[in-house]
């Protein structure tokens, strides 16, 4: 087994861990990972919902996932404490799956002011429109770049709380990945996944994705 290393995904450099196990930085990019067997660019997505730890881990294993990239705004759940900031990394580690928190640059808690000019008028849902506005920023681009660098070495599943991707901001991140030519697969069950498709009302220019009103 390759030696454990710790990656600071904000600066994209290797750092020695101060202690064993998962740690979190204020930038939201530090986690313990191990060297992989090769590059893979397909990025999976999954929502933990009300799954038990065993059900969640089994779904990841069945799809060959090696690293969970947490894109929740708050890495925890009162209703489902098994996905809390201590419990989840521990249960994943026991299954040989690594954990990285992307809590600042890819999380879904983004707010645009009501009435503020936007290029994403196709979204009627304010939360989704706000996230689409955030997708136009350098911070979002850095987060996607970090996610893809991780996916170059390991099979990654981007995780949030919602069971179905179309109710979650991870589907917008999926649009951004597809626009970059990266295959995205949404894990629905332990035995089934579906390819993510770019929304029909999305517009793409290079790596930029936006959703203009019709």
How much is the radius of gyration in Å? 17 Å
- The helix-strand sequence is EEEEHEHEHHEHEEEE
- Kindly give the count of domains: 1
Q: Under CATH, the topology is which? A: Protein-Tyrosine Phosphatase, Chain A
What is the quaternary state of this protein? Answer: single chain
Mean pLDDT: 83
Strands of the widest sheet, in order across it, are 6-5-7-4-8-9
Helix content: 10-25%
Q: Quote the beta fraction.
A: 15-25%
Biggest pleated sheet: 6 strands, mixed
Number of strands: 11
Helical/strand content category: alpha/beta
Instruction: Pick out the low-confidence regions.
Output: 1-39
- Global shape: globular
InterPro entries: DUF488, UCP024492
Can you characterise this structure?
Strands 6-5-7-4-8-9 form a 6-stranded mixed β-sheet, sandwiched between helices. Strands 2-1-3 form a 3-stranded antiparallel β-sheet, with no helix packed on it. The chain has helices at residues 53-62, 87-94, 126-134, 138-153, 170-179; strands spanning 4-8, 13-15, 30-34, 43-47, 67-70, 98-101, 156-160, 184-189, 192-195, 203-205, 208-210. Residues 1-39 have low confidence and may be disordered. It has a single domain (43-199), classed as Alpha-Beta Complex (Protein-Tyrosine Phosphatase, Chain A). The chain contains 5 helices and 11 strands. The longest helix has 16 residues, at 138-153. The radius of gyration is 17 Å and the shape is globular. It has 214 residues and is of the alpha/beta class.
């Amino acid at each position: 087994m390759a030696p454990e290393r710790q990656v600071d995904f904000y600066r994209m450099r290797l750092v020695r861990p101060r202690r064993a196990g998962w740690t979190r930085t204020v930038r939201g990019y530090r986690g313990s990972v191990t060297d992989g067997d090769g590059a893979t660019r397909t990025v999976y997505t999954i929502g933990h919902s009300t799954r038990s730890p065993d059900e969640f881990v089994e779904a990841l294993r069945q799809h060959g996932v090696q690293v969970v990239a947490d894109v929740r705004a708050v890495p925890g759940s009162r209703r489902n404490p098994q996905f809390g900031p201590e419990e989840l990394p521990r249960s994943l580690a026991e299954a040989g799956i690594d954990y990285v928190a992307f809590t600042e640059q890819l999380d879904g808690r983004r707010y645009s002011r009501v009435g503020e000019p936007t290029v994403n008028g196709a979204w009627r849902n304010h939360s989704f429109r706000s996230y689409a506005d955030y997708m136009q920023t350098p911070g979002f681009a850095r987060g996607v770049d970090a996610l893809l660098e991780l996916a170059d070495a390991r099979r990654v599943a981007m995780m949030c709380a919602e069971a179905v991707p179309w109710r979650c901001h991870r589907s917008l991140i999926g649009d951004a990945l597809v626009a970059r030519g990266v295959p995205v697969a949404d894990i629905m069950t332990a035995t089934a996944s579906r390819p993510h498709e770019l929304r029909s009302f999305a517009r793409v220019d290079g790596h930029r994705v936006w959703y203009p009103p019709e």
